[in-house]
Amino acid sequence: MLDDDLPGLRLRRLAGGHKNRTFAWDGPDGEICLKLYASGNRDRAIREYRALLHLADSGITAAPQPLWHDPNPELPAVATTMLPGQAVPELDEPVSALRSIVSVLSEVRRVPVGPFADTPRVGAAKDIVHRLMGTWSGQLDDHADDPHTYDMRLLLDAWSECGAAATLLDPAPRTFSRGDSNLSNWLWDGTTVRVVGWEFAGYSEAAYDAADIIEHPSARAIDDARWISLLPDLRVHDEDSRRRFLAAQRTVALRWLSVLWQRRIARADEFEAQRTRVRDLLNHDFL
């Protein structure tokens, strides 16, 4: 029922949303965005609402304004103002939005962690490290006869030996984070970029988040040289932050390889491209 428009309720289905459903609602005061969360995602609903309240209190205008939160146990909801713009990966020239993206990220980095001081972002460095060393390693053991397993194991071992995990598990100053690096949530109106989707928000660190956005598949439309040139704006500007960035870049790239490994037949070209990227990152200090 929630996969299509619901004209009787004045709801127009919007693209994206992953497991959730997002609609434009023609309310009495104009169109607003209504996000309905999948069953079991109550924590993400309240996390997003709190993040938007915190951003509004901090003067961030590149995020939607929170209107209300309904903690219904079966279908929690968050309503926000509607933001204009086109998703960055859909642009003819995604690079046109890059400086605005980096500017917004810089603003968000200056927001205090506040109510998220003890809440790590979803997909935190520690979680990814443990997933690679535990879950994926076990999955490779279960597919010992697969023709790709030997090479995947070599790459996983090379990553383990390069010290990236130990580097990321060392404490670092905490920064507020969106927790989601998908550029499909960044909307460009030709002048300004704004960002939706804050349900994974929490604390993180600057170097890890910089690598996380650069290594997200949606960022491939923008060449690496442009990203790397703007690293100082993302607080990757000295020897220690660059060391942590490289560790994070290798780790996040390997994480995406592990995701694509599970779809290595259906998405063979993407899998091979990601394998090459991981190998290159493990063999060079920087792209």
TrEMBL record:
Location of the Aminoglycoside phosphotransferase domain: 11-228
Q: Pfam family of this protein, just one?
A: APH
UniProt-listed InterPro entries: Aminoglycoside_PTrfase (IPR002575), Kinase-like_dom_sf (IPR011009)
Q: Which domain of life is it from?
A: Bacteria
Q: What is this protein called?
A: Aminoglycoside phosphotransferase domain-containing protein
